[in-house]
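Researcher: For the record, we're logging two predictions in this thread. I'll number them. Prediction 1 follows.
Model: Prediction 1, sequence and structure:
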Amino acid sequence: MGLAEIRELIKPVIKEVDFSYLSGKVVALDAFNALYQFLAAIRQPDGTPLKDSKGRITSHLSGLFYRTKNLIEYGIKVIYVFDGKHPEFKKKEQELREEQRKKMEEKYKKAIEMGIKGDLKKYAEFTSKLEFNMVDESKELLEAMGVPYVQAPSEGEAQAAYLVKKGIADYVGSQDYDSLLFGGLRVARNLTISGKRKVRGVEVDINPEIAELNDILNYLKLDYKKLIWFALIVGTDYNPDGIPGIGVKTAYELVKNNNDPEKLFKYVGWDKYYKEISWKELEEFFEDPPVIEINKEDIKFGEVNEEKIRKILIDEHDFSEDRVNKAIEELKNAYRKGSQKNILSFFGK
């Protein structure tokens, strides 16, 4: 929602880069966003997720381990940020997502009954559900990998934006641009998905994308508050329908040419569509969300616990021993290279 809806409008200031561009940078990754991607994308040809011998889903662990290892090999320092308690006014968005998931489950079941193999994976991708035990498993694996994580009190994107604003991280890593609404200065997309994706049946390369808040504001000729108004009219996670009947371009013109939010939201009929939440409450939530105060020295990178990784992936979840051991060595080498690079840069080499 929100800035995802205006991507075409801000496309000229979105930069496509390669992973080397982010080498040496710290990325605060939206953990739930990444885990849902892994659950959706890492599946068998029939659409079923990866499972161990006890029938427990392991797609999230596979994506978390191998994809995070790849990012570290690119020289990227990763901090995962987990969601806490969602605000009450996010309930409608969560209900819509659950409704969509159930619809896709029905379509998936019908495709199986009809023997339509081509549609199985497409529908299955939208049936993913992140369970509490998956979150706990993910945190345990990250600890074993030497990858720090932060437990947000509320929205993970807000906490990640805080880390960037404070200079602890350079980018928020998420498929959504909504962290910009929380004042996140820079967002990197396409970090935790595979390098290929089918678009209209054609396989295309998917590269990282960078968006910077100041570039967007300058390009749109809006200030930060107006960007929030714009997103609220188009639709955010907290008012997913936006204002019915008002498209992106109309919303942009309205916001750009109006300096009085009271008149603006009265004109678009906010109170008609949102009786339980005011635009002002949402504006204040974006400007000052609940976050945990953190300092740079609180974040530790690079202490790999090999035995714990093996226990989680091989002993408990039947991952390939050879593949896991190979990945552990690659992870350790990546950390060593990162340490050597830091020493050389200290001496100006």
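Researcher: Logged. Prediction 2.
Model: Prediction 2, sequence and structure:
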Amino acid sequence: MASQTPHQNVSFPSEGQTAHGYLALPAGGTGPGVIVIQEWWGLTDHIRDVADRLAAEGFVALAPDLFGGSVAHDGDEAAEMMSKLPEELGARLLAGAVDYLLGQEAVTSSTVGTVGFCMGGGFVLALAAQQGEKISAAVPFYGVGQGVPASYAGVRAKIQGHYANEDSSYPVEKAHAQEQQIREESGAEVTFFYYDAPHAFHNDENPAGNYRADSAEVAWGRTVDFLRQNIS
């Protein structure tokens, strides 16, 4: 269970300052590294739980705090917080998290995987484009927002996307276009899965009530298998 997974709050250098995050370790103490990137709500209990769930599957999971400890309580507040995080700054802060995670003795892999949701899904793609060979597996869940990069030319990771057919925040036609753009610009192996669900269907604490247990379970199983196969 997530509550039995060793975890701790950590600090690491990034962009000439001290960044913070949540680190979850597997029961065995070591494993492949995964960066978990938050939604626009902030580093919530749900995102910490995602890191714990990955740790329970044998990964060393780090969830960086992009909002400096702030957590939004409604959509307006979340949108305002996201607007104050420039895309380039967010990606650079995440780059510090990658270096920190790869430097941990507990991490057995020479690359890391990334998983992110909504805004964080966009930053998953930006980080993969920025970090090249350091990211071997990237998993965006309905990756939208200002984190989405303009170009995917730098992507070297394999990508598995999870998108929603009933997404009012990011129409499925745009998701199909994003999938094709990544494939064409990066030459990477790209697989997107589409679910008959709304935006944020994986978040069981979503204030809008968009959680869909069946879709979330299938997507999570695919994510874990994909990360196991592609982080080395």
